[in-house]
What we know:
It is a single chain. The chain is mainly β. About 0% of the residues lie in helices and about 55% in strands. The strands form 3 sheets. It has a 6-stranded antiparallel beta sheet with strand order 1-6-2-3-4-5, with no helix packed on it. It is flat and about 55 Å long. The protein starts with a strand and ends with a strand. Pathway: Protein biosynthesis; polypeptide chain elongation.
Amino acid sequence: MASTSDIRNGLCIKFNHDIYKIIEFLHVKPGKGPAFVRTKLRSLTNGKVLDNTFSAGHKIDEVRVETQNFQFLYAEGDQFHFMNTESYEQITLDKKVLDAPDLLKEGTVVMVQINTETDLPLSVDMPASIVLEVTYAEPGVKGNTATNATKPAKVETGASVNVPLFINEGDKIKIDTATGSYMERVKE
Length: 188
């Protein structure tokens, strides 16, 4: 059993007869009344996100998880296939379990959290950023903006990302996997 002081991003807990992963949390100490923790939880079975408030000192049921490296092999419809980098065992996960499935490139190594009680995969943690090649971008016209403007661009995985006007087809860009936003152009 853990308490609200142990809450952190990525923690898996049992709540309302389901397993949830904490996406965001905020400890709040109002001037009047008891402290509480405001959380945003994602269900690991159906992918739904819910907001919940725990009072300070509330006991939470933590799920013991083990983290292993898996390499993304390929996608088949809504099914994504991964291979354990140590044992070469393959698993198939549903698209709704993944945080950013449209940014997954074949060969990318991700961290999969596995429930130690049931040996079932719970969630997939993407790398903080990923480098992808731009496959389509409208040409940017110089001088038509006053401040930093963006345009939509398609990357090799099929995802659409807003990029600065100077990005062209064939450029490699670094994308933040948490927000799906452009970070920088990568020179080779």
